[in-house]
């Protein structure tokens, strides 16, 4: 083997190693660190979002507890899905937690501008309607800290599920857009999927009325 051939093989081996390393790095990049926000994520939250790291963001957000599990099994599409409650990290059986009364399920992410405009309207609607309807939000990005800080910044205190894998949206067949709202009837059936942004509590009230009547 000539010296020139040996050098060629060495260069090719180094290039292959660099390409492999680069591919691995891309595969480990979380969606919240430069990838497309619309891309599916692989984890519920970041490894950095430990209970200790989330303690202060949770204190600042001051969210109410997530709904308690009801006796009935809830929406069939959501059975078997368990996610984290953003308020305290408790595990939530989603189908049972959303059972027993009409639910307005609002899907959002911390980086979504229209979501930030819509969330205060959702909170206003919940204040108006009282316990007859439950408004529950679902944060659909693995950066749980950023989601909590966004809610604190907006002053929105609604029960919030942390679903970085977007399992809830996938199970309900929600289009891959945000914000999106799913209206569930008291029996757990899906009344309407609304891939749109609302700007006021009046708009939300009208949409719920039209969906469940």
Topology readout:
Blueprint: H1 3-27, H2 51-61, E1 82-85, E2 91-93, H3 94-97, E3 103-108, H4 113-129, E4 134-139, H5 144-154, E5 160-162, H6 167-172, E6 180-184, E7 190-194, H7 201-212
Parallel strand pairs: 3-4, 4-5
Antiparallel strand pairs: 1-2, 1-5, 3-6, 6-7
Keywords: Cytochrome c-type biogenesis, Disulfide bond, Redox-active center, Signal-anchor, Transmembrane
Biased composition (Basic and acidic residues): 44-62
Domain Thioredoxin: 63-213
What do you see in this structure?
- There is one protein chain.
- Helices cover 40% and strands 15% of the residues.
- The chain has 213 residues and is of the alpha/beta class.
- The protein has a seven-stranded mixed sheet with strand order 2-1-5-4-3-6-7.
- Strand 4 (134-139), helix 5 and strand 5 form a beta-alpha-beta unit.
- Helix 2 (51-61) packs parallel to helix 5 (144-154) and helix 4 (113-129) packs across helix 7 (201-212).
- It is globular and about 45 Å long.
- Mean pLDDT is 84; it is low at 8-42.
Main features:
alpha/beta; 213 residues; Thioredoxin domain-containing protein; Glutaredoxin; transmembrane; redox-active center; disulfide bond; Redoxin
Give a brief description:
This protein is α/β, with parallel strands linked by helices and about 210 residues long. It folds into 2 domains: about 1-30; about 50-210, Glutaredoxin.
The total strand number stands at 7
Shape: globular
CATH H level, superfamily name of the largest domain:
Glutaredoxin
Low-confidence stretches: 8-42
Q: Tell me the structural class.
A: alpha/beta
CATH class (first level) name of the largest domain: Alpha Beta
Structure annotation, total helices: 7
| Tally of structural domains | 2
Question: CATH topology of the largest domain, anyone?
Answer: Glutaredoxin
The biggest beta sheet is recorded as: 7 strands, mixed
Average the pLDDT over all residues and give the rounded result: 84
């Amino acid at each position: 083997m000539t010296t020139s051939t040996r050098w060629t093989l060495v260069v090719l081996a180094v290039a292959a190693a660099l390409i492999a390393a680069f591919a691995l790095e891309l595969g480990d990049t979380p969606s919240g660190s430069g990838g497309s926000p619309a891309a599916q994520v692989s984890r519920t939250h970041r490894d950095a979002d430990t209970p200790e790291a989330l303690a202060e963001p949770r204190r600042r957000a001051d969210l109410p507890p997530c709904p308690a599990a009801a006796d009935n099994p809830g929406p069939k599409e959501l059975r078997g899905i368990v996610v984290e409650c953003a308020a305290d990290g408790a595990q939530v059986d989603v189908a049972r937690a959303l059972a027993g009364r009409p639910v307005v399920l609002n899907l959002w992410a911390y980086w979504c501008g229209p979501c930030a405009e819509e969330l205060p309207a959702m909170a206003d609607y919940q204040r108006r309607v009282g316990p007859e309807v439950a408004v529950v939000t679902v944060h659909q990005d693995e950066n749980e800290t950023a989601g909590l800080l966004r809610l604190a910044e907006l002053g929105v205190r609604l029960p919030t599920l942390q679903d970085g894998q977007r399992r809830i949206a996938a199970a309900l067949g929600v289009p891959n857009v945000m914000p999106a709202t799913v209206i569930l009837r008291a029996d757990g059936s899906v009344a309407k999927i609304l891939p749109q942004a609302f700007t006021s509590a009046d708009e939300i009230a009208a949409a719920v009325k039209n969906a469940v009547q």
